[in-house]
Amino acid sequence: MNYWLVIGVSFFYLALLFGLASWAERRSAAGRSFVGNPYIYALSMAVYCTAWTYYGSVGRAATTGLGYLAIYIGPTLMAPLWWVVLRKIIRICKVQRITTIADFISSRYGKNITLGSIVTFICVLGIIPYISIQLKAIASSLDILTGANEVGRSPLFGDTSFFITLGLGLFTIVYGTRHVEATERHEGMVTAIAFESLFKLVIFIVAGVFVTYGVFNGFGDIMQQATQLPDFERLMTFDNDSGFSQWFWMVVLSMLAVLFLPRQFQVAVVENVNEQHLNKAMWLFPLYLFAINIFVLPIAFGGDLLFNGANVDADMFVLAIPLSEGKSILALMVYLGGFSAATSMVIVATIALSVMVSNNLVMPLLVGIPAIKNNYQNQLTKILLFSRRFGILVVLLLAYLYYKGVAEYYSLVEVGLVSFAAVAQFAPAIIGGIFWKEGTKNGALAGIVVGAVVWFYTLVVPSMVGVGMLPGSILENGPLGIAWLKPFELFGLQGMDYISHAMFWSMFLNVGLYIGVSLLSKQTSQERNQAEVFVDIFKYSTVFESSIVWKGTAYIPDIKSLLVNFLGEKKAEVAMKAYKRKYPEPEDESGKADPKLVTYAEKVLSGVIGSSSARIMVSSVVKEEEISIDEVLNILKESQQLISINNELRRKSMELRRATEQLRSANERLKQIDELKDEFLSTVTHELRTPLTSIRALSEILYDNPEMEREDQEHFLQTIVKESERLTRLITHVLDLERFESGKQKLNLAPVQIEEVVRESVQTLEQLVQEKNIDLVVDVQHNLPSINGDRDRLIQVLVNLISNAIKFCNPEQGRIIVSGYYIDGDIKVNVVDNGKGIDPEFHKQIFDKFYQAQNQNIRKPEGSGLGLPISKKIIESHQGHIWVESELGKGAKFSFVLPVKVNVPANV
Amino acid sequence: MSTKEKLKVLVVDDEPSILMPLEFLMRKNGYQVYIARNGTEAMESVDKERPDVVLLDIMMPDVDGYEVCRHIRGQENMNGAKVIFMSAKTKDADIKKGYDVGADLYIPKPFSTRFLMEKIKELTQS
């Protein structure tokens, strides 16, 4: 393929990324950020899968078999623990504004400069090989694709990979160092990385599908043919002696690497916007690892089969296969996928490293020299930015040189594992640091330094021997012929592969020294303070400023000008405002700064120049007093008590609020009940007024007219009696209703025959029926099952219904039908009349005791009647149901159903 | 009082037990009595008989007493008619509404027949 075309496409791709990143930043500025999305977060974590995965896994699988899987199993096993470990680290970093792993360690152990610098140094040393293999992958893939021979070219200006390195450097500078404050997130970068993760995954799967189904006939076919390969057995089994230990150490290594590699720390911790995103990442990330590994074996075996014996680098199978099949477009896409895997790693790793270098190496140096600190304060921000940009270029150039000098001679995975082992050296100090308060600076220092030395001796030195920088005798006989110092057989330990061997000794000594020295050495008060805050971060995170113990004298203007120097006027202003929002107490009149302000300022500065430099800067403008460890612990204890008192208070006030709410709603309910009662009362008194009016008028007339005719007198007296009866009935009804409502009404339950109830009710009303000449038909099914009910109450219901029917049926030709039958486990009773019917509008209301409310001027059709409300109560207390069906002019049908198996408590 | 000058009284109520004593009372006092058992009947009677006094219940099955009163006040030749509400509705708002629609008097139930007669006489003499 045309060389310049490929180069052009590569730079076009970079431009595309650039565009995507700036689009994402514009969107974020407009408040529609992409990174608020947990999927973007999880995808950005897949920066873990670099060219190593993309090209190296296939190479590893083709040459050494299943071992390649170990570094994906580790992170998968680790992922569920993220909620415990990673979330804690994220919280600590957010609260303390920590932006790099070096800063994290230095901060935990008393903001110690030495520790921060050493960690930075190890990181740079450890990660440069890793970056170099990305460069190598880009160069090799370019070679394969274009048929050129890049590898043999003279370094620097005769070499395309040199220009690609520079291009990447520029891209990283533009996107990684736009803002000086490192805690500010690189949203554009994260979006671009997430896109790259998606891109490389899709392309790799497409390539896998092509090899598996396009070149071969599916998985089965490849595996079938692969069994013919001479070393198939070896590849598919873990047969060698060190097989187990190799797997074990690889898994451990990758578990630690996925947390502590600077680029992983960058995307997972620094760029995290929401701890809850971890929830999704915990399953999405392993899923991603699984997806990108599905086609590794088919491609590896496919390559072995296709290029059997030919001189093709196994690392490049994924590219070489489409190319040999003549699919140049696919090959170009595969190249781009690999390019994206490599660039994403390079960009994130160099940004992380450059921040580390500037904050932990350059800054302490600058602020440590009084002349610079005093004379160039105003330019510090510029110096900082410049050092970061310069750092990016230096790191990349070192990686380029490493690639040319060493990495060219090793496989991608071999070099990558060296980097893994380097960052694993931070694990004891970090994990210990967040769970064990007793870990000390000296312990961490001893563990990391010795671990790193062993790492260098057992992994880096042999690789230098390999490329001829050191004499081979070191490996064979040990340095100066001392056999127990042989790098692969340290202290005579044999029988392990070189990675397991290196990990065993470095971790053994690292952990041992960390714990041992920690137990023997003493913490300073500041160390102790940080240890407490780190380990109990979830207790302190909301009250961070008051949990850092500080004593001394500081003046607000000094603190402010310090902030202005490093943040600029505008951002310093914003930071001060944020402080005032959090702690609105008025400023001291004398201009003295509150210790909380000092801590806050130091925290803000940490975000810019790292915690140890921030410590130096702050202590240079304030007068500090010594504090003893006891003092620190006492104050912390107090603040913890304060926190728990606060929590208690918050809980109490919540309870109070809930109780108030309950009271309020109870009150509301009472008010409602009260209103209903009022309404009921006025309904009842209203009902009382009519008969009383009549009785009074009649009595007065009788009294005033003694000479009245006997006939009239009798008529009047009869009416008085009838109206009195009406009053009595009303009172009985009211009392009945009250008893049902208060639950005082008891049912006398016994087996009851509905037929009998109907017969008795009809008998009671027989005379009335005859008087009015009404045609009453009774049609009740014989042998109905008996129900468990209160006989008298049921009669009351029926009498009420039938007498209503008598009252309202057609006055000329009254006709009433009472029927009863069994249906669906219930007994149903209907009372049908041929009166003028009831407007459906009132069907519900007539069963309501408050129906005849005062503000209604139209009398309800029934006349007085609490009869229906009472009937309803009775039927419902039998677990039945009563209703009316009617239309105006078409009569009315009142029905109720009673379940045959009534299950009422005996005295309800 | 001659038959010609006999005062025409319309008694409107849906309760027979109230109509009965009132009818007796009016007749006893020498008035010409008309009876209506609901609002519709009352309005018909108003149009036809043009009573001098209307004793008017409010809550009735079809048209309520307020409506009947409005009907009366809407008639040109009924200006002089006296309307007396007698109602079980005793809230201030109900009473106010009674006067608003043009009643001359609002008597809450139960009432004294002696008081009622006094008032009728007062109203018709003035």
Automatic annotation (TrEMBL), chain A:
Cite the Pfam families for this sequence: HATPase_c, HisKA
Residue ranges of coiled coil: 642-676
Entry EC no(s): 2.7.13.3
Question: Could you say which enzyme class this protein belongs to?
Answer: transferase
UniProt GO molecular function? ATP binding; phosphorelay sensor kinase activity; transmembrane transporter activity
Database matches in Gene3D superfamilies = 1.10.287.130, Histidine kinase-like ATPase, C-terminal domain, Sodium/glucose cotransporter
List the InterPro entries.
HATPase_C_sf, HATPase_dom, His_kinase_dom, HisK_dim/P_dom, HisK_dim/P_sf, Na/Glc_symporter_sf, Na/solute_symporter, Sensor_HK_Regulatory
Subcellular locations according to the entry: Cell membrane; Membrane raft
Domain named Histidine kinase: which ranges? 683-902
Membrane topology value: Multi-pass membrane protein
Q: Reaction catalysed?
A: ATP + protein L-histidine = ADP + protein N-phospho-L-histidine
Q: Name one GO cellular component term.
A: plasma membrane
Transmembrane segments in this chain: where?
A: 6-24, 36-55, 67-86, 113-133, 160-177, 198-216, 244-261, 282-301, 329-362, 383-403, 415-436, 443-465, 498-520
Is this entry keyworded Kinase? yes
Q: What keywords appear on the UniProt entry?
A: ATP-binding, Cell membrane, Coiled coil, Kinase, Membrane, Nucleotide-binding, Phosphoprotein, Transferase, Transmembrane, Transmembrane helix, Two-component regulatory system
Q: Does the keyword Kinase apply?
A: yes
| Family indicated by similarity | Belongs to the sodium:solute symporter (SSF) (TC 2.A.21) family.
What is this protein called in UniProt? Answer: histidine kinase
Automatic annotation (TrEMBL), chain B:
- Pfam (any one): Response_reg
Q: Could you give a single Gene Ontology term from the biological process aspect?
A: phosphorelay signal transduction system
Q: Output the PROSITE patterns linked to this UniProt entry.
A: RESPONSE_REGULATORY
Please provide the record's keywords in A-Z order.
DNA-binding, Phosphoprotein, Transcription, Transcription regulation, Two-component regulatory system
Q: Which InterPro entries match?
A: Bact_response_regulator (IPR050595), CheY-like_superfamily (IPR011006), Sig_transdc_resp-reg_receiver (IPR001789)
One GO term in the molecular function aspect is: DNA binding
Ranges for domain Response regulatory: 8-124
Give the sites modified to 4-aspartylphosphate. Answer: 57
Its protein name is Response regulator receiver domain-containing protein
In which organism is this protein found?
Pontibacter virosus
